[in-house]
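Support request from a user on the community tier.

User writes: "When I paste my structure tokens into the form, the page sometimes reloads and wipes my input. The last time it worked, I copied everything first. Here is what I submitted, just in case something in the input itself triggers the reload:"
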């Protein structure tokens, strides 16, 4: 499923500026079609997870790594005990 930029912003409760910043940082990449930008449901859930971690004090990059590689994080934590 795909969402327009407007729908994406509403669902995540972020501003246009924040979405633009996430695009510039490479956190999300919209698909441009017919002069509009669309985001996948995968992008939605990924960014929702990233936002959740950033609210807990992580940087965007740390949060993206945690969302993108959750098994590696758990494995590394398990090996250090």
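"...and here is what came back when it finally went through:"
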């Amino acid at each position: 499923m795909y969402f327009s930029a407007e729908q994406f912003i509403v669902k995540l409760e972020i501003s246009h500026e924040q979405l633009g910043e996430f695009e510039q940082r490479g956190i999300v990449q919209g698909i441009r079609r017919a002069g509009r930008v669309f985001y996948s449901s995968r992008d939605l859930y990924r960014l929702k997870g990233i936002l959740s971690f950033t609210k807990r004090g992580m940087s965007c990059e740390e949060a993206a790594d945690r969302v993108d590689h959750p098994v590696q994080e758990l494995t590394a934590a398990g090996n250090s005990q």
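Agent notes: The reload is a front-end session timeout and is unrelated to the input. Residues 70 and 76 are 10 Å apart (CA to CA). The radius of gyration is 14 Å. Escalated to web team.
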